[in-house]
Specification:
Elements lengths: L1 H12 L3 H5 L9 E6 L7 E4 L5 E3 L5 E3 L5 H14 L8 E7 L4 E6 L5 E4 L4 E2 H7 L10 E5 L6 E5 L4 H6 L3 E2 L4 E4 L4 E6 L5 E4 L9 H7 L13 E6 L2 E6 L2 H5 L13 E4 L11 H9 L8
Parallel strand pairs: 6-12, 13-17
Antiparallel strand pairs: 1-2, 1-5, 3-4, 6-7, 8-11, 9-10, 9-12, 13-14, 15-16, 15-17
Length: about 290
Amino acid sequence: MRLLQWLLLLILMTPSVFAQRESLLIGPGDELHVQVFDTPELEQVALVTDKGELPLIMGGTIKVVGMTPGEAAGAVQKALVDARIMRNPRVLVTVQKYATQSVTVSGQVVRPGAYEITTPRLVTDVLTLAGGLTDLADRHVTIERVNGETQETYFISNDPAEVTKHAKLVYPGDRIIVPKTGIIYVLGDVGRPGGYPMSNNDSKLTVLQAVALAGGTVPSAAPGNSRLIRRTPDGYENLALPLGAMQKGKKSDQQMQADDIIYVPFSYLRNAALGLTGIMASATSAAIYAKP
């Protein structure tokens, strides 16, 4: 048995794809078995502390949270060398018991909570466990790694080829945060006035796309007198919006920002255009439509 363990140790210490296949990362509370070749007195079993550190029999404490077992073995070797305990130690670290075997999903998913995983899983797979994204979810999700010091942003594409090409794994102890997407408003003389989430595949909308989502302008509308209300650090800007010219291809379409309001006035035969105060009041009471 001892011979087999050290054969494994020699394999893990050889630069190869084996090290890359170690997938579960060490987290607080994990139980580690540390073995040092030809030095049985340094063999130990210890728990990783809440700070992510492993207390060694000799060599002090080392931070191992977020490491693979192979990386932790390298850290132990370095600690023994730095403490001048050994010149060329060969170390094997194995995880006898994982304490962090779940990934937490919070925010705009159907069923937020903790989900047990014992191997790395694709972000999309874990989101499926949580019931998938809600209609108000932003597709730019945040992954907080188990070490608590690293955050990554991952874009959830609707394109299966993109998902496969840019696949990202989450590990036990990680946390996925799905924020709420931005809302834009299309008000006035359109087919379905209201608020619309910016939750299409690229989480972006243009003016013409937004108006189309709202059912387009109706025959009684005056799109040439449309307004764009945009939030700024100093308040709101009331900008002229050449919607009629955009619809005819005479003006370029414009990118929208979260909280933008498009107001399409009624024709002068029906009603006069609202002022800024009236438009803002309409946006406040507008219905939010779940799907663009």
